[in-house]
Amino acid sequence: MHRNDFRTLQLFVAACELKSLSRAAQRLGIAPSAASRRIQLLEHDVKGALLERLPHGVVPTPAGTTFLRFARDILHLVDRADHMLSEHQSGVRGFVRVASSSSVLLARLAYDISRFASSHPDIQLDLEERDTETTLEMVRSKQVDIGLVVSGADTQPLVTFSFGGDRLVLAVPQTHRLALRERLRFSEFSDETFVTLGHGTAVRKVLVEQARLLGAPLLVRVQANTFEAMALLASQGLGVAVLPQPVLAPLKEAYGLKEIEIVEPWARRNFVLCVRSMPELDPPAQKLLRFLLDP
Question: Domain HTH lysR-type spans what residues (predicted)?
C-alpha cells in the first residue's frame, strides 16, 4: 500500500458507507476519474478486488469488508493523533466524542455533560445528537468513543452500562376527546393518527411494533425532526404524539397539551451507555465514562 495515502482510505470508506464511488468522490472533493484511479491503485496494491461494481453503485467484496475495518482503524488513529497534537498546542489535554439519541440527551445527558465540562475545562467534548441506530453504528465504526441509546436495540458486540431511564407519555391538545383521561392503554388510542420522529428512532420503532401486535399499522400523518416540533404539530391537531415525559414537561403548558400516562410496560424505558471496549478508550474518555456512571 506504499503508493496509497490516507485520502485514498477516506475515499474507500466513504464509498462503502455511501454505496457509491461518485458520491464518495463528491464528498471528498475528488474528480470522479481520479477517485476511480485511486481505488484501482489500492486494489492493485492489495492484490484483490475491494469493491464490487453494480449498475447503480458499489458494495465491498468479502475482502473489502475486512479491509474496511482496518481502514477505519487507521483513520481513527490518525484522527486521534491530530487531535492530541492540536490539543497540546492549544492547552487542551483531551478530546472525547459522544453520540446520543435525543431521548437520553434531553432527559439526562445534557445536564451531566455540562457538569463534566465545567469541572474538566481541559477536556474538549464533541457531542452529536443521532437516532439510536446511527449512534450504535458510530460507536462500532469508531466515529465516537461513547454512545448513549434507549435499551432494546441490538448493541452487540459493544460493552454496555445502565444509564437510568424515562417514561413515555401521550400528548394531545386540551380540546381532544382523550384530554379528559389521565391514564390510557395503547389499545385505547392506537387507532389515532400520530405525529412521530423518523424510522430509526426508538419511539417510532416501539409504536410500530405495538401497533403490529394489535394487528394494524401505525397511522403516521406527519413525521417531525425533533421532539419540540412533534409537540407543536400535535398542538395544532395534526395527530397525537408519544413523547418522553422529561421532554413534554416544559412544553405542555406553552403548547396547550394534555399529558396522559401510558399504562404499558414498554412505556418505561431504560437507557444504555455503550463503548467498544474499556482498553480502547483514551484516558479522557475513561474519565468521562466514570463520571457519567457515577456523577
Answer: 4-61
